[in-house]
Request: fold
Amino acid sequence: MNDRDTAADIRRLLREKNAVLLAHNYQRAEIQELADVLADSLDLARYAARADKPLIVFCGVRFMAETADILSEDKTVLLPRPDAGCPMARMADTDSLSRMKERFPGARVVTYVNSTAEVKAESDICCTSANAVRIVNGLNADEIIFAPDRNLAHYVQRFTDKRIIPWDGYCYVHNRITADDVKESRKLLPDAVLMVHPECPPEVIDLADEVQSTGGMVRVAQESKARRFLIGTEEGMITRLKRENPGKEFYSVGPARLCRGMKTIHLKDVRDALEKEQHRIVVPEPVKTRARRALENMLNEG
Reply:
């Protein structure tokens, strides 16, 4: 069966099962094109919280499907490939977080959504790359434990007088983007707008024209009068930007960066998950209730 037939099957199954297909911006192009909602982590979390379909098929990595299950009490959430994981999410654990909380008893815990449900459950509030600065500045605390992404923590520190205590985790995709990559790309395209993700290292952030979540990149690309852009994030974002802005040019900063977890999912996996209603993600109680509190605190902050 070719991709066109498989995509047709998926559309039919979505109708028959009254299901919705959510996909992150880093998914494969053919999945992006099928998605009912294609977005960044924040907008996907918002949609999951208000979804009006009984079945959610989540094309992303495991922590995203967990988030959908936590926020959608009466929904079934399927992850087409149960091995679609995020290495950064696995860099934080509850035992280490508990020890850090003991070391800094007055600190509040802000946890990036790129984390396990168990770590979210031990947190005061969650954030995404789109709202991290606003979340931190809105807390009534002078010290913030920020897990698990050190690069995002360092980025937030630029915009607050609070003391940020970073976890030593990182996204291997963004952490590989270097200042030398930026400088070489600038030589080739000196007129391009440089947009990078806040998960990039500080020395890359220093050189950027725009620092944006993937949702922010979509907005800037649409609104900017610039015709050329250098993009510092996973290649799936560049795929979307090219498709939605045909009159503009988008190039990777350095070699194209690929997230193995995001690219694990293929059309066949989506079809099989729908057809068999397999690979359901269920976050157990009481983790679910406690993690929901941290996520809802985030959503209530906008």
About this structure: The longest helix spans residues 3-16.
